[in-house]
Specification:
The complex is a heterodimer of chains A (about 160) and B (about 230). Chain A is an alpha/beta fold and about 160 residues long. Chain A has 4 helices and 7 strands, in the order H-E-E-H-E-E-E-E-H-E-H. In chain A, the strands form 2 sheets. A 5-stranded mixed sheet of chain A has the order 1-2-5-4-3. In chain A, strand 3 and strand 4 form a beta hairpin. The longest helix of chain A has 12 residues. Chain B is built from 7 helices and 4 strands. The chains are: A alpha/beta (about 160), B alpha/beta (about 230). The interface between A and B is medium-sized, with 13 and 11 residues.
Chain lengths: ~160, ~230
């Protein structure tokens, strides 16, 4: 990990793209302006964080801005990790896609779109990946119900069948 | 011919309940003839019910049933002892399904070791694992591609009744295809799956047509190329 000082220096280099830094239990996080995420990631790549380990979505309900995307970058030679977070509101859930620079983001951005509804502009093929294509709703949002079926035991089967009629 | 009615004498030291029981042969005959109708939930009072037939009609009834029954029984026996499973391992239950084919819980003892890869060659589909909404039409298509007679076993809690993963992504198998035997467990032990398969075998042997297809409305489970 970059230590706390290294993290602050990094944030200073990024300028006003970096909104906030968090250093907790030796893990570094930078919260970044969503409009400049691609440039920020390229800068970090220049600093050695050349491997995108993963890409996640978060729903911060009830805090605003509600939806978040987290990019985990890894510096393989220095064995360093850094997390880059962006926050977007529900009314305008648009983030620029980084698939052109980081090919691993292809499927992972599709998953974040499917589960949270964050629209990645410039993505080559943004469609649902886990749920069926015609599914409505974004299941991992906090106000989406868990769903499922009521369990019908055999001893109750007759009662359910007649209730259905 | 007059039927002699004699009480059964209890032998000394036998485990029968106290007292002697008079046997009514007529009653036994009527009960035995009515039993299949009762099991099928049929109507005992209508015409042509076997208990009301007498003489030549009764003989003809028994005769036509005996020939088909024996042949049917032989065919059912053969079918039940040679299931070709289409082991459709979807998730964790597949891990336990492998072990029924392993050395300890050997499924080859019963003749079911030929797990076919193609649904066209299989007659038993074992749904081992959870079925997601995306996968359901695919499984239904596979089931339709199987040839009659075909059976389905739903292995594990997830495909029978959603199990631990009772959420937006899954669908119980009963909603899109008819299932003969549900094997509970998460995952069911290989012995439990064996028990379920053997129960199905007994069902096929004794009474392959218990009317479940009408109960589930499962007519027309064939694949039609024009629908594809």
């Amino acid at each position: 990990m970059p230590d706390a000082t290294g993290l602050e220096l990094l944030a200073r280099e990024l300028g006003d793209a970096a909104i906030e830094t968090v250093y907790f239990r030796e893990r570094a996080t930078i919260v970044v302006d969503p409009a400049r995420i691609r440039a920020v990631l390229q800068t970090l790549r220049g600093k050695g964080y050349a491997f995108m380990a993963s890409l996640h979505g978060v729903d911060h309900y009830p805090e605003e801005p509600r939806l978040g995307v987290i990019y985990e970058l890894l510096d393989m030679s220095a064995v360093d990790r850094i997390a880059v977070k962006v926050r977007v509101p529900l009314e305008a859930p648009r983030v620029e896609s980084v698939t052109a620079d980081w090919p691993t983001a292809d499927h992972q951005e599709r998953e974040v779109y499917d589960m949270f509804g964050v629209v990645f502009e410039g993505h080559p093929d943004l469609r649902r990946i886990l749920m069926p294509e015609d599914y409505e709703g974004h299941p991992q949002r906090r106000d989406f119900p868990i769903g499922g079926e009521p369990v019908i035991f055999t001893r109750d089967e007759a009662k359910w069948l007649e209730a259905r009629e | 011919m007059e039927v002699k009615r004699e009480p059964i004498r209890r032998r000394e030291g036998s485990s029968l309940s106290a007292g002697t029981v008079p046997v009514d042969a007529e009653l036994l005959r009527v009960r035995r003839l009515n039993a299949p109708q009762l099991l099928r939930g049929g109507d005992l009072q209508g015409p042509n019910q076997p208990a009301h037939l007498e003489g030549t009609e009764l003989e003809r009834y028994v005769e036509e049933r005996m020939l088909t029954t024996t042949l049917d029984k032989a065919v059912a026996w053969a079918r039940s002892n040679s299931f070709f499973p289409l082991g459709f391992g979807l998730a964790c239950c597949a891990m336990e399904q492998f072990h029924t084919a392993g050395a300890r819980m050997d499924i080859a003892r019963f003749g079911f070791e030929a797990f076919r890869a193609s649904p066209r060659q299989a007659d038993l589909i074992i749904l081992a694992g959870r079925v997601s909404i995306k996968m359901a039409p695919i499984i239904r298509r596979l089931y339709d591609q199987m040839l009659e007679p075909k059976w389905a076993i739903s292995m594990g809690a997830c495909c029978s009744s959603m199990g631990v993963f009772n959420n937006y992504a899954l669908v119980p198998a009963d909603k899109f295809m008819p299932i003969d035997v549900h094997v509970p467990g998460c995952p069911p032990r290989p012995e439990a799956l064996m028990h379920g398969i053997l129960k199905l075998r007994k069902l096929v042997q004794d009474d392959p047509d218990m009317g479940w297809r009408e109960r589930y409305g499962a007519v027309g489970t064939e694949e039609r190329p024009e629908d594809a």
